[in-house]
Amino acid sequence: MEVIVDGITNEEIGPVALVHQEKWEQEVGFTPQIAGEKQKVEFLLFRQGRSEVYQMLYIWVDVARGQ
Predict the structure, then answer these.
(1) Which of 58, 54, 24 is closest to 41 using CA atoms?
(2) Backbone dihedral region of 21: left (phi > 0), alpha (psi from -120 to 50 degrees) or beta?
(3) What 3-state class would DSSP assign to 55?
(4) Chain segment 17-41, per-residue pLDDT in tens
(5) Domain residue spans in the chain?
(6) Is the pTM of this model over 0.85?
(7) How remote is the C-alpha of 10 from its chain's centroid?
């Protein structure tokens, strides 16, 4: 799985091997590199040995500047 923030790869997770109908639930962390509003965070899931995206989920986040 890849985590992409505003078009930049932020994190790669795995590999995770699942059998048919099996679920994987785990917290996934990521750290946006810049502050800003409405940053698109994409979670891309790939099947083993394939380059095309199998499943995708995205969320929008606002990242405040650190003080």
Answers:
(1) 58
(2) left
(3) strand
(4) 888 999 999 999 898 988 999 999 9
(5) 1-14+36-67
(6) no
(7) 8
